[in-house]
Amino acid sequence: MIKLAIIGTGNVAFHVAKAFQNSENIHLEAVAGRSPEKLEVFSTIPHRITDLKHLPQVDIVVIAVSDAAIAEVSRQLSGYTGLIVHTSGSSSMQVLEPHKHHGVFYPLQTFSKYSELNYREIPFCIEAKLEADFQTLEDLTSALGATSYSVNSDQRAALHLAAVFANNFGNHILTEAQQICEERKVSFELLKPLMEETIRKAFSIGPEAAQTGPAKRRDTSTIEKQLNALHDPEQKKLYTSLTEALLKHYER
Question: What is the CATH number of the domain that holds 163?
Answer without folding.
Answer: 1.10.1040.20
